[in-house]
């Protein structure tokens, strides 16, 4: 069961009831869930978690919603894959891929939406909505269909075709906006003030964001209740990165990890939308909003809501941040596919290319146990790689044609 005291302002610490609200009335800071950690410590154990379902609901005691109202498509407990061939190419030692392409709608967004949609049902909302760069759209539409809620999903009109089809198929309303994500987000904030809808990443955001912590919970459990030395996480709003760090710390706080986590957290951005990486490189505290221009559309948030918190987390843990070019993104996607058999979307290419960059600079070290978060499936962004890969040969259906096309030495 949930062990929630209420909501608390991340800036001034003022406390609120656990309602569908997201901003502090006093300082306009973001609200987050405040837990009763003593109650969680008393309620949960490694054994009890291991006996739970093979989904993120095995961590229900650490989540802000009752699992008996869960909108559950089977999200979470995705594979943590040892990536020795990738590690060898990059001159690293122990590298693991957390493969979140394996969620119901093929991205990590199913984690946050599971929590937000369950909470929305508990609050009695009849309509689910979101501002999305694509993956969230997929997930909200699917979960709303499963829960029997109406849905309005707002996306930039120039989104990848794959992400529009895989949202619209669930039968909700898909609203394509002539503008970028930041424009979409602004409109949704206005709509959230007018309609009594559950905007998963607006008025449900304090609950929604908690879903990302399950990536840390699973990683620790899958490593035998240990913490990695270094994690590499893509940055869009910055929420995922900060929540993964928070997840490891909470496990220690409730007694599920013996040692206090001392992991380094590094962030990955695409150069065409890299406000956090730019601030990190300039050693500045100011995140300057940018107009996104990158093939990594799922990370294309020019004004990241949690950018400052992500930057602070990277600095305080001794991590780093890098921004990679679109060419490097494609190379990163192909490298991961070629070495590990995992097809990631462009955001995964950003993350792998960043790992490669940080490894070559000696920031990610061969003596570290590294976990890399792959957040979405490559089938969603086929246009990124389709110009670069195709049939090795196209031939007539005869042995002669085959032998003409391939050097017999290599067969
Ligand atoms: Zn406040």
Residues in helices, as a percent range: 25-40%
Rg of Cα set: 21 Å
The H/E string reads EEEHHEHEHEHEHEHEHHEHEHHEHHEHH
What is the global morphology? globular
Total count of helical runs of at least 4 residues: 16
Tell me how many strands there are: 13
**Ligands in the structure?**
zinc ion
Biggest sheet layout = 6 strands, mixed
Q: Low-confidence segments, ≥5 residues, pLDDT <50?
A: none
Strand order of the largest sheet: 4-5-13-10-11-12
Mean pLDDT, nearest integer? 96
Identify the quaternary structure here. single chain
Instruction: Quote the distance from N terminus to C terminus.
Output: 59 Å
Beta-strand percent range:
15-25%
What structural class results from the helix and strand content? alpha/beta
Any overview of this molecule?
By secondary structure, the protein is an alpha/beta fold. 39% of the residues lie in helices and 15% in strands. It has a 6-stranded mixed sheet with strand order 4-5-13-10-11-12, sandwiched between helices. Strands 8-7-6-9 form a 4-stranded parallel sheet. The chain starts with a strand and ends in a 6-residue tail after the last helix. α6 (161-168) links the parallel β7 (150-156) and β8 (173-177). The protein is globular and about 75 Å long. The chain is built from 16 helices and 13 strands. The mean pLDDT is 96. The structure holds zinc ion. Zinc ion binds next to loops.
